[in-house]
Amino acid sequence: MALAAKARKTTAAPDKPSLIRELVEIADYIAHLRTEIAALRANELTRDRLPMAHEELGSVVEATAGATNSIMNAAEEILGLPDDKNYRAVVEARMNDIFEACTFQDITGQRIGKVVEALRQLETRLTRFAAAVKAKDEGGIDPAEVERRVRNELLILNGPQLKGPATAQDAIDAMFD
Amino acid sequence: MALDLGMPILVVDDYQTMVRIIRNLLKQLGFEEVDDASDGTAALARLKNRKYGLVISDWNMEPMTGYELLRHVRADEALRTTPFIMVTAESKTENVIAAKKAGVNNYIVKPFNAATLKSKIEAVCGA
Question: Which PANTHER family match (chain B) (predicted)?
Answer without folding.
Answer: CHEMOTAXIS TWO-COMPONENT RESPONSE REGULATOR, STRESS RESPONSE REGULATOR PROTEIN 1
